[in-house]
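Input/output pair, single chain:
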Amino acid sequence: MASEEGQLSVNITSPSNDAYVGSNLTATWNCTDEVIYYEVQLHPLDGHGTLIKSINVGLNQSIELTDLTDGLHVITVRAHGPDNTWGDASAVFHVDTAPPELDLLYPHENDILNTSNVTARWRAADSSGIVYYEVWLDGQENAVQRLKGSDTQLTFYNLSNEVHSIMVKAVDGSGKSTSRTVQFSVDTTVPCLEIISPSSGFHSLDGSIEVKWNASDAGDNIKGFTIFLNGKEQTNVASWADTHIFSCLKDGEYEVMVRAIDWANNSAQDIIIFTVDTLYPEILDRSPQDGASISTSVSVEFSRPMDPQASSIVVEGVNGTTRWDGLTLIFTPERPLTYGTTYAVKVVAKDDLGRWANDTWTFTTTDMAFLTGTVLDSHDAPLSNVTVAIVGGKSVLTDETGSFRLELSAGPNILSISRSGYVTQNIPITVGPGEEKSMDEIRMSSTGLIPFMGWIVALIALGLVLVLYLVGRHRGQQPPSRRAPGRHTARSWKRLEELERRSR
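Output:
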């Protein structure tokens, strides 16, 4: 009872003060005094106090109020007694015809969860307040849990891998309720995934690779696959896919990861590491070429490591051994080669990826020979710094002992011996391929002897002229000769000129 006035004592038993009711209300009251009749009045608390209805109910101590509108109302019961006595009782109550608002926040409808412990969360509101909640799992009403109106979540533990449902019922102060149900699945099984080709360590020779995998999941719940290259996501593919192709990759090492994801976001992944190597092996250098020494080895330098078991050098007609020095394959003959001989070389080589680098060529060994000797002066003393040369070929200088050693081509050659102040000598020489030929001692004459001999010849010529002159005078005193005049004199002068030319 909210209030009481007058001589009679009236007590409203329903609704209680500040109660929440629906659109229909059974109001009840009582009075301990003598009453002739009761009058019930209903007022809305809308700020105006407008009377909605006033009803004489006689001696009845209850009334059915129907179709009440939402809001605050005041019910007043007035008891009329004898001798104009009266008494009032009033109660304020709320009319709430709307059910509670209720939203299930988690899980969502048709969620697939990867945990067996699921916490249901909700939110509810009502003008009369939420009095309590009822929550149950999988329709098990016998296992309903009642929670306070302030509780907004409940955890269910150890749920099995299957479809489940949770129902939440919110009850407001006027007894109205709203229920919501959500259905979801629990899937804690992890997919199985394996990359079946290629295997780790694979080498791509053209910059492309096809990755193939097998995957499975309990309940066939795989949602799709995510492909990563060197840790970066490349693409997502459908659940039915089992292959992805990479192309136009640059040379280098790569890591591919394929991740399978099911609808519960369980995932499994597999990784392979492969290498792109599009550079075929090349021969960077080969030796020897023509003019090779007879003690030469045969070698080939490659651009990349080769398979030692699948690589060889064969020199036709020559036995020997092979060895590797880094990227260079070397063939060493058992014995020196033959001078001036042409040899055929065949190289067969394969890298560890099965790519071949083969080659053939020929080379001819040197036909060179060596010439040794000693140069002396006219007094048999050794001459150093004498240039000993093959005309059109190599040259050397004699050492302090006058000795020299000169390499020259096999066959006929012209050997030139020269030094300033000495007469140059040109000597024909013939040597065979690989021959080491020793010459006899070579003596050089000083160019200073030539002027000296010239003077001697000149003096002899002058003496001869004088002799001829004297003889001529003696003959001039004799009878004239039969020869033509001047003929003998001309011949004498001519002979003298020849002598002078020889002296030069």
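The CA atoms of residues 69 and 146 lie 30 Å apart. The first strand starts at residue 3 and ends at 6.
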